[in-house]
## 1
Amino acid sequence: MSGGFPVLRLYRRRSGTEASHVLCCVRHPDYRGWSTDDEGAAARLLEHAVESLLAGSGVDPSTLTLIGEQQGYPVGDRLFETPAPERAMVSYAFLRSGGPWIVLGLDVEADDFWGEVSEDEDLRALDPVPPLSTVPAVVLAEL
């Protein structure tokens, strides 16, 4: 089986002259890794989950611009606290391979972010590169 991992999308939100950020967090549906039909169905379910989470929170998708996406576990455990935070400082770095792929963490200092990246084999393999950007964001999570 494939899937079951968190998908984290960081958006810039425009409302009039105001700009803010939204972090949308859902779990990728499981699918049989050898079946492209199942993989496609899982991708559609993922998009539906994101759309439903945004709509249920009153966020108009037409006001959003994707900054980046991480598929997998972020830096730190803050996102998985119960209950999940409603607001957080989101720190993110793009991957060497380029956008829209990022590695992100919530409410984490720069030294701690890069320290965890260097110690975590999965995060290190993604190859995030400086600079680290940090923005305040509304957190929408269904994990």
## 2
Amino acid sequence: MKINLLIAIAFISFLAYSNINYLHGIVGMTLRDGGIGCICHNFSPTDSVNVWIEGPDSVIRNTTAQYKLLMTGGPAVAGGFNIASHIGTLDTADTLTQVLFGELTHSSPNQFINDTVFWNFLYTAPDSLLTDTLYSVANSVNRDSIPSDLDQWNFGENFMIHVVDNPVYVQNENLSPEKFVLYQNYPNPFNPSTKIKFTITSNVKSEMSNVMLKVFDVLGNEVAVLVNEDLAPGDYEVEFLPESSVPQLASGIYLYQLKAGNFTQTKKMLLLK
């Protein structure tokens, strides 16, 4: 009888310890650290729980980008998570998350909205040009204060981030920049569309100038031609709508380039999905 009582006390103590500690976050649970997972709730992951990361797949070195971890499935009352980076630095974007030993976790369970819960966070790329990896795991709970197999969790698919160098901007050497002006797109970052404005000034000798405005990815691949025609001096504005591109464009850094005669100017923009 005394042994059974001791076992019961130990079990209750374990539940209380788990509830108090894991309620405010836990780290070391991702596939980066061996794939332990949220075993305090359930020993095995559940396929019906979907966990994924959204954000740019390329980041300029030594710069910071915002990402989002999302989860659906399970009891879908509240959720917690753990994210680890292989090389880059993780940081909080709001009070819903916290950094523990270089990893990210929840500061308290976050409520589902309809069938989804999400957390925003920041990633800072290292100084080296490389491919980094984000590892994630999240737990969907019924919020009954008792860790059990009624709660369900799963690992997220590893998210790859390409750390790239700053693009080299090439400006015209023969024509003065004031003859053609390329402005920064707005909004930036953007989703689902952005506007790009440029000016052909009255300083241009010819009444008409052949103008090309193109969009490239960070590898130099052409992804869109926004303008390719003869234009008179004046102000122009075009809309870039990535959803109309085939194939669909992923989140990340893109370059837009204005060419007119010997004049070339390039600027960067950031698509966030």
## 3
Amino acid sequence: MTTRALHAVLVERTEAQGGRLLELLSAALDGTGPAIAPVDAGLPGLDELLQTLAPDTVEDTGGSTILRSGHKEPVAEGTAVVIGTSGSTGAAKGVELSAAALTCSARASLARVGARPGERWLCCLPLTHVAGLQVLVRSLLGGTEPVLADRAEPRALAASGCAHVSLVPAQLQRLLRWRGGTDAGEPGPLAGFSSVLLGGAAAPRGLVDAARGAGVPVVTTYGMTETCGGCVYDGLPLDGVRVAIGDDGRIRIGGPVLFTRYRPGGYGGAGSPPQGEFGGMGPPQGRFGGTGPAKSGGGLGGVVPPEETQRWFCTGDLGSIDSAGRLAVRGRADDVINTGGHKVVPGEVAAALQACAGVRDAAVVGQPDPEWGERVVAVVVPADPADPPSLKLLCTHVRERLPRYAAPSRMVLVDAVPVLPNGKHDIARLRRELREQTEPDSVT
């Protein structure tokens, strides 16, 4: 197998280093430079991740090469980017993404949002995550210079002159609240955008509705590092992407946007977690959604090999597909709560709670119970801390939308639900905090 070198880049600030990363990314995509691995310089497990990625060279935040690996482990020839991630397993690994997959994903994204030549993208997501990096890929394909920002600051967004931006739900929520405090007649910070891609975590239905009601052109996205970021927009797969639901209820993704392999572990060895399964060349059993054959031309990133359009990746998410082919993500398979023999999907319960009056945010976890096996616990951020919703109100609200057994038997009030760097709720941390709690009704 032909291989190429891997160059790790320590990233501290998007604004200061985005230009350098854009230069390296362009060379990685067109094959004139090594593959790159953008890594957060402040990551607590930085040393462990670098050992896992095993790059040939490491570039510090000042642009100097500070390490040449003594045990080189080159990447596959077509690989352009390696994203370090722990996924839901907690174990560091690298996800190898080919130039063809990245550019196929970016082209499909540009087409879906109707991006016109010359329209610029604003990047206020970490460049060490695939969502931030894909903003750079779309800009390269569109022949434009992205605007780089370390944060989604309202006035900076409004003055950016950009047409498109990617956000996580927490950013959108803050921007909407800021919009409500503007002077009468002053447009909100997102008023001038043609599309606002929303991903990284499940977005509360109320948040999406509020944004669209305020005239914000929100496009919800679903995807992961292994699919080069968002591959399903507003429930519908991008061109060339196929979606299926297996007999186990888990979402399968097929098409040219899939990653090449993990570092270490390849397709199913050490380092390849249960949700990282490939289903081989044939289609899985279950309900299908998606589009026609993959579309990919030459140029930057090359051509997707025919065999790459036939693989299927089994995600760790549960979902359903309606008669129109629209995907609904129910939640994580490994988060399912077994209470009294009934299986409860926390994501569905959390979505119902987030739509309840008096709730600003909510997460749901399972807690061991001697009688029922597990009980459903609602972790709630009240809209008004002085007047929080009652457990009875939450139960009634959930039972009107889901089976009775899905209703929470305990409510925990918090100031904020902890989140991971990618904007998703930190469920593992919530479980730890609940185990340590002695107070039955609140957590500070």
